[in-house]
Amino acid sequence: MIDQRNSVYLVHRISGAQDKVEFFEIYRAKPEFDSCGSTQTPAVAKEPYLGSEGFLKKVIWRGNRLEIVYTQKTSESIRPEEARLNIE
Predict the structure, then answer these.
(1) Of 15, 27, 65, 88, which is most buried, counting CB atoms within 10 Å of its CB?
(2) Nearest to 7 by CA among 31, 28, 33, 32
């Protein structure tokens, strides 16, 4: 888990052994992950983070929808583990 605001939890996850896939998830309850990275808590939203789209600028939770905002400018970018949830 990388951020929590107003009982909304933001998680950045990486899956896959060979071909890594990164994504952000939103939970309404604090998720507890086992050693395999599984949780019994259902995610209410999930969005892939696609490095091919650009650098990560911010993550927005807007009206039950998760949005990833990209930028082409490295000066405006953040690493995924530094993301903070912007609630709009």
Answers:
(1) 27
(2) 28
Nearest CA among 86, 77, 69, 82 for reference residue 26: 86
pTM of the model: 0.85
Residue 2's nearest CA partner among 28, 35, 34, 25 is 25
Q: What is the CA radius of gyration of the chain?
A: 13
Give the pLDDT confidence of 7-33 residue by residue, as tens digits. Answer: 899 999 888 777 788 999 999 999 998
Q: Which two tokens stand for residue 13?
A: 């996850």
CB 1 within 8 A of CB 81: no
